[in-house]
């Protein structure tokens, strides 16, 4: 059994100790449903489009993404940059807490996750890609190009199309990422195949900060002798072994949805 000191870590607190970083918490706002088909269609036609489905070219789709989506437009009118990007376990956990009353009534909430037609991939509003441990409700192989918008339903993420009245969650892309997890001093992970990068770091605190700045990071190891930091992506990070010169940070996982 691995031994060593264990402690809780929240990067929002750690960042407040760094002069070069500003600690800010998630900035989300949940709106009630705002869109019905007739309203959306009128907005599209006012922009010169025939209908909501007139997204047959990448240029038309990109323009629609910026101007036609009513919930996005209202988020921006309120001073938010986009719908909320929830590409980290911390952001997703916080979002679930905010929208729990809506989900408990069987409602769905639109979020900042889009099918990017030009690249033919799904990405968050802040430009990051979903990680392998993203809690999808349905298998990604079932998603079509007509399912352009991300929503949370039953505690998991789905991609949908259409213009049915929905709730929406606004957010800002520029806020410092929050990272939460546990510190294990004097311990290291058992052999991992999910290493993201190894870089120089002056301290364990800086190593945790590197992890917090990468939405794909799920663990980080700081080697004091070499002053190096290795970050790891999603994978099995349960097993650890003693190593005096190593401190390991294990990030919070995505919450398990209710069954």
Automatic annotation (TrEMBL):
InterPro entries: CTDL_fold
Keywords associated with the record: Signal
Keyword match Signal: yes
Origin superkingdom: Eukaryota
Signal peptide residues on this chain, from the entry's feature table: 1-23
Full protein name: Apple domain-containing protein
Organism from which the protein derives: Elysia chlorotica (Eastern emerald elysia)
């Amino acid at each position: 059994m691995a031994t060593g000191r264990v402690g809780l870590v929240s990067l929002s607190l750690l960042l407040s100790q760094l002069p070069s970083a500003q600690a800010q918490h998630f900035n989300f706002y949940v709106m009630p449903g705002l869109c019905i088909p007739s309203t959306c269609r009128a907005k599209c036609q006012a922009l010169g489009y025939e209908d909501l489905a007139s997204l047959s070219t990448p240029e038309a789709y990109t323009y629609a993404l910026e101007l036609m989506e009513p919930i996005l437009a209202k988020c921006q009118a309120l001073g938010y940059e986009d719908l909320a990007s929830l590409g980290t376990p911390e952001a997703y956990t916080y979002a679930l807490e905010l929208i729990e009353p809506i989900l408990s009534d069987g409602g769905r909430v639109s979020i900042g996750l889009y099918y990017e037609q030009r690249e033919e991939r799904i990405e968050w509003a802040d430009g990051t890609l979903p990680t392998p441990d993203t809690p999808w409700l349905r298998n990604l192989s079932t998603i079509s190009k007509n399912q352009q918008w991300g929503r949370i339903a039953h505690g998991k993420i789905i991609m949908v199309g259409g213009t049915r009245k929905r709730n929406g969650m606004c957010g800002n892309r520029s806020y410092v990422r929050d990272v939460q997890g546990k510190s294990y001093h004097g311990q290291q992970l058992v052999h991992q195949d999910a290493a993201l990068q190894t870089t120089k770091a002056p301290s364990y605190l800086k190593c945790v900060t590197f992890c917090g700045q990468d939405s794909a990071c799920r663990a980080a190891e700081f080697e004091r002798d070499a002053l190096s930091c290795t970050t790891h992506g999603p994978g099995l990070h349960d097993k650890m072994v003693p190593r005096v010169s190593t401190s390991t940070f294990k990030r919070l996982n995505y919450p398990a949805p209710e069954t």
